[in-house]
Amino acid sequence: MNSPILSTRDGDIATVTLNRPDKLNALTKPMWRRLGEVMRELSADDTLRCIVLRGAGGKAFAPGNDIAEFEAERSNFDQGKAYGEVLHGALAAIADCRHPTVALIEGICVGGGLEIAALCDLRLCGEGSRFGVPINKLGLVMAHAELAALVQLVGRAVALEMLLEGRVFGAAEALQKGIVHRVLADDAVEAEAYAAARRIAAGAPLAARWHKQFLRQLESGVPLTDAERDEGFRCYDTEDFRIGYRAFLAKTPPAFVGR
User: Mind listing the pLDDT tens digit for each residue in 150-184?
Assistant: First the structure.
């Protein structure tokens, strides 16, 4: 039996695949749990430089949670809270990942699928992709941990528009709302997502991790300590800095080592 979450690797780029193509990659509780585990494992791997998240089958990133699971797993407060702890753990693992993440979005990206993509650092989709959070039709809400990521991505006004209307919309509108960074021809999304991942991987990995860390610190609203401010200059003591500026002067591509 195939795993519902696949983790593969090509050099310093990993791919995490939501793997239920027969169900358009609809998410289940075991999938959320395994997604969190995989993302935490990859985050701890210093040999990685980028992670691509995608759905299997080419027809969908993910349409949200599998409604067929609700009767057994989300039929009351206690079950919903337990499910939420697993789901939020997976989302936190994506948000806290030390490595840059790229969402390769093909087809539908709705509900929980959009929550995953929203937490990736770069989001690329095809012209035929569709987006939305139509949970009002199920009588459900986005809990605080999920809502925070959506508001951070699109702002309060757009988040409320999406939640109150529950409308599913196309890629052009998703770009206008700031949900995705780039819209490409449907048959070009995969190639460009991996091209972006390779561009990221070619950069200094310590710099990428620091930039993600610094942005999290700034977004927290907590005043920076002197030690945290000093970390903005630690790059000057790295081997990668010396490699980078010497390669620039020599007009050769840098070969960063992550030290």
Answer: 999 999 999 999 999 999 999 999 999 999 999 99
| Residue whose pair of structure tokens reads 């139509």 in the numeric block | 134
Would you say 163 and 111 are in contact if contact means Cβ atoms under 8 Å apart? no
Q: What burial class does residue 235 get, using C-beta atoms within 10 Å of its C-beta: 0-12 exposed, 13-18 middle, 19+ buried?
A: middle
Model confidence pTM above 0.85: yes
CA distance 63 to 131: 9
Tokens (6 digits) for 220:
């927290």
Instruction: Return left, alpha or beta for 189; rule: phi > 0 is left, psi -120 to 50 is alpha, else beta.
Output: alpha
Q: What's the N-to-C CA distance of the chain in angstroms?
A: 40
What is d(CA 28, CA 249) in angstroms, rounded to the nearest whole number? 52
- For residue 125, how far is the Cα from the chain centroid? 13
Whether the Cβ atoms of residue 85 and residue 146 lie closer than 8 Å to each other: no
